[in-house]
Every structure is written in structure tokens, then in C-alpha cells.
Write a structure and sequence with these properties.
Length: 495
């Protein structure tokens, strides 16, 4: 590492011209995403695998529903995770405790017990909620301590950080998928646990390079606020326990009731956030207009992620059962297909960045990009519809799945970075953090909807299911295109 002198401070180590702490956060995020995507790639496969093969023997629909609510809660918990860091313990300890809880969750998955498995999922959800939003915030805080670095250096730093995400997402399914294909499920889950353990260890050892970032809460909870928070928490806990006890006492309890309750929560909470903001009479006309525009951004993102994230559930199971994965004497593990998206992201993200830079002010507006993304994700499911129809005659070529993921990756690059950017621009200053949380809630809500949508796949032919959702997305995308000018007006100067 080289050294540089920050204003009014001792020389600090740098990494490739960036703050030295970036390498610590890069490696932490890379290994955390390694563990997350390694487990995600095999979760539905494990749940749907026969008992004799070491799985849970669930139906495809049940496996997809559990996967969907798990994925939903991972993103939903980013909201309280960010609050805990901002008001209670700071981002540094939030990331540390989040990493430890995630690691414990993955180790719990490595046991054969059903109870330990579900405990593991809960721990991963809680830990990811603490880690995921706060480690990104720490990257920004790290650059805030180095005003001598040009803003472009900050952008490049986030690009390197994003590279770590996709490196972890690419490598993990190759390893966990190899053992999953041999029905060594708990070895595969154990690999994800080891990855998270490495993340925690290097995060602790590299603490000095973080230069004191995130050691304190940004807006510590005041004594008079603690009582109010505790009362609200106690009331919510009592209501939840009362409903659960009543359900059990009546002899009507089923796991589906919990999934339904969590689904409703993931849909109601963002709606309440919007209602709260619209009822704030201190907002200016411009701020209120921008929130109105963001409602449409949120709905578009929710539909997009609802379809996109079926790659890890129904599309994954389709690849397992209906795709010819044999190459000579070797059968490609199903989970390996989950590495296609991160590879394509690494290849195509620079192309899209160059394109937007080249077009400059001639590039499409945000509503138009969202329109293109929704049409793209719709086309990907039309392709899946054709593949599903062909699968009725026998195993199909894996190139169908590669094509689906290619189209989805292009659509993702039109929506994900654009949506994140416009969220920061449309949010009223006093609601900046909460509106950023809403961006995570769009993914949570989309995955929650899948608990109701994916069961339809068992009631209609695959071609009808995928094709129908594809046409829905294309229809909404066309509506975005038609309404782009109106949404643009509501955005009040934000391009």
C-alpha cells in the first residue's frame, strides 16, 4: 500500500489511490455476498429435493413461496437495520454484529435438523438487515474523511465495491452448486458459513484501516425517545404473540399463516410510508410532486423485482427439471447457472456506463429507462414461456436459460442503478434516509407478492404462467412509456 497525507492528519495508507479501508469493506462485502448467493443458489433446490436425496421434499410451489418470503425479509430488514445503526450503535458495530449473526445462521443451515434450518434462515435475515445497508454507508463515510480526493475517485471506489459484490456472487454458486449436485447439501451450506466467517475475521483485523468510521450513531436516540420506542415495540410484540397463541389454541396454525402475515407486512409498510409523507403539510409543492413521481418508480420497481427474483426460485427449479445440462459425460450443476448474471453484470456494466456518458443529455429519462427495463424483463419471461412450452416435449437446450438471464441483466442495468440514483434525487431532505429505505422495500414487496403469484405456476401450463407475467410487465412498461412525460413533470426538474 502507498501512503498519502490527509489534511490536518497523519499519513494514511491507500489502496489503488483509494482510502485503505476500502479494501476491508470490499473484502467484507465480497465474502458476505459469497455466502448469500452461495446459499441462495441452492435454497429452492434443497427445499424441493426428495427426502431420500437429503432435501425437505417440498413441492416446487411451497419451495418457491418460502424462498420468496425469505428474500423479501432480507430486504425488508434493511430498514430497521439502518435505523439501529443511525440511532443506537453506529454502522461499524452494526456491520460486525450483522456479520456474526449471518455466520451463525449459515452454520445452523449446515445441521440436518428442520428447526435449526429455519432458525438459520431467521438469523441470516436479521444479520443481513444489519450489515447490508450499513456497509454501503461506511464506504461513503470513508470518502467523507478524505475531502482531498476528487468526487470521481469516490465514484470509482463504489465501482470497485460493486465489483466485490459480483465477484462473490459469481464464485459462490460454482462451489456450493458442485456439492449440492452430489446431494451434499450441508457441506454446501457449510461453505457459505466459512465464507461469512472469513468476512468477519478480516473485518475485525482490518479495523484500524477504517479510520474511526461508523464508531458512533449519527443521531443517537434521546432518553425521552427510548420509552416511546420500547412501548411501541412491546405493543407490537404482544399483538403478534396474542395472534400466534390464538391461532395455535384454535388448532388452525399453519406455516402459511406466518408467510401471509409477513407478506402483508411487506406490502403495508411502504404504503404507510407514502401516506405519512403525503400527510406532511410542511412539504413544499415541489417535494410533494416528486413523491408522487416516486410512487410510480416504486410500483415499477416492485413489479420488476417480483419477476426478476423468480430466477432463484421457479426458474432455478425449471433449470433443474427441464433443461438438458449434460455435456458429454458431465452434468452441469443447476446452481452454476446462477453465476451467469454476475458475470454478465461485470461485462455489461461498463458498456452501459460508457453509453450513458456518451449520450450525456441525450440519454433517455428515468421513466423511459424504467419503461425499457419493464419491457425487457417482460420479454425475458416471454422467452421463458416459449421454453416452458417446448419443455413439454422433452428437455430443452440450456441456451434458453442463458438468453433469459442475458435479457434480464440488460433490464437490471436499466433499472437498478438508475432507480438508486433517482431515489436520492427525489427524496425530500427530511425524508432522505426513509425514501432510500423505500427503495429496498420495493424489492421486499415484489418478493412478497411472489408468495401469492408463484402458486399460479402449479395451476396453469408453464408457457401460460411465464408468458402471462411477461405480457403483464410489457403492458406496464408501455404504460410507463406513454406516461413518461407526465411522470417527468412530476419529478420537477429531476432528469
Amino acid at each position: 500500500m502507498a501512503t498519502t497525507t490527509a489534511p490536518q492528519g497523519p499519513p494514511v495508507k491507500t489502496w489503488m489511490g483509494h482510502p485503505g479501508g476500502l479494501v476491508v469493506l470490499f473484502l467484507t462485502e465480497m465474502w458476505e455476498r459469497f455466502s448469500f448467493y452461495g446459499m441462495r443458489a441452492i435454497l429452492t433446490l434443497f427445499l424441493a429435493a426428495e427426502l431420500t436425496d437429503g432435501g425437505f421434499g417440498m413441492t416446487d410451489v411451497a419451495a418457491a413461496a418460502l424462498y420468496s418470503i425469505y428474500n423479501s425479509m432480507v430486504y425488508f430488514m434493511a430498514l430497521p437495520g439502518g435505523w439501529i445503526a443511525d440511532r443506537l450503535i453506529g454502522t461499524r458495530r452494526s456491520v460486525l454484529w450483522g456479520g456474526i449473526v449471518i455466520a451463525l445462521g449459515h452454520y445452523a443451515l449446515a445441521f440436518s435438523s428442520h428447526a435449526m434450518f429455519y432458525l438459520g434462515l431467521v438469523l441470516i435475515v436479521l444479520g443481513t438487515g444489519l450489515l447490508k445497508p450499513n456497509i454501503s454507508a461506511m464506504v461513503g463515510e470513508l470518502y467523507d474523511k478524505h475531502p482531498e480526493l476528487h468526487e470521481s475517485r469516490r465514484d470509482a471506489g463504489f465501482t470497485l465495491f460493486y465489483l466485490g459484490i459480483n465477484l462473490g456472487a459469481f464464485i459462490a454458486p460454482l462451489l456450493t452448486g458442485y456439492f449440492a449436485a452430489k446431494n451434499d447439501w450441508h457441506v454446501a451450506f457449510g461453505i457459505a458459513a466459512v465464507g461469512m466467517t472469513v468476512a468477519v475475521i478480516q473485518y475485525v483485523l482490518g479495523g484500524r484501516r477504517l479510520e474511526g468510521v461508523g464508531l458512533r450513531a449519527h443521531k443517537p436516540l434521546q432518553p425521552h425517545e427510548r420509552g416511546k420506542i420500547l412501548r411501541i415495540g412491546a405493543i407490537v410484540l404482544v399483538i403478534v404473540l396474542a395472534l400466534l397463541i390464538a391461532d395455535i389454541a384454535a388448532g388452525t396454525y399453519r406455516a402459511e399463516h406466518v408467510i401471509t402475515a409477513l407478506t402483508v407486512m411487506a406490502l403495508v409498510v411502504p404504503a404507510l410510508y407514502f401516506v405519512t409523507m403525503f400527510r406532511d403539510h410542511t412539504l413544499t409543492h415541489q417535494e410533494r410532486s416528486r413523491i408522487s413521481a416516486y410512487v410510480w418508480i416504486f410500483v415499477g420497481a416492485m413489479l420488476f423485482w417480483m419477476i426478476y427474483d423468480q430466477a432463484g426460485s421457479l426458474v432455478n427449479l425449471f433449470t433443474e427439471n427441464d433443461v438438458d445440462r449434460t455435456v458429454g459425460s458431465f452434468e452441469i450443476p443447476t446452481a452454476w447457472f446462477q453465476s451467469i448474471n454476475p458475470v454478465l453484470i461485470l461485462l455489461l456494466a461498463p458498456v452501459f456506463a460508457w453509453l450513458w456518458t456518451k449520450l450525456d443529455r441525450r440519454q433517455p429519462t428515468t421513466p423511459v429507462k424504467f419503461s425499457m427495463a419493464l419491457v425487457g424483463i417482460g420479454i425475458s419471461f416471454l422467452v421463458m414461456g416459449v421454453a416452458g412450452a417446448l419443455a413439454g416435449r422433452g428437455l430443452i437446450s440450456p441456451l434458453w436459460i442463458v438468453l433469459v438471464y442475458f435479457i434480464q441483466t440488460c433490464a437490471e442495468l436499466l433499472l437498478s442503478p438508475v432507480g438508486l440514483s433517482v431515489t436520492t434525487k427525489l427524496a425530500p431532505l427530511r425524508y432522505a434516509s426513509q425514501v432510500m429505505g423505500l427503495w429496498f422495500l420495493a424489492t421486499a414487496a415484489g418478493n412478497a407478492l411472489n408468495t401469492w403469484v408463484t402458486p399460479l405456476s402449479a395451476k396453469v401450463p408453464a408457457g401460460v404462467y411465464y408468458g402471462g407475467l411477461g405480457l403483464l410487465a410489457i403492458g406496464v412498461g408501455i404504460c410507463f412509456w406513454i406516461g413518461a412525460r407526465k411522470i417527468g413533470q412530476l419529478m420537477a426538474g429531476v432528469h
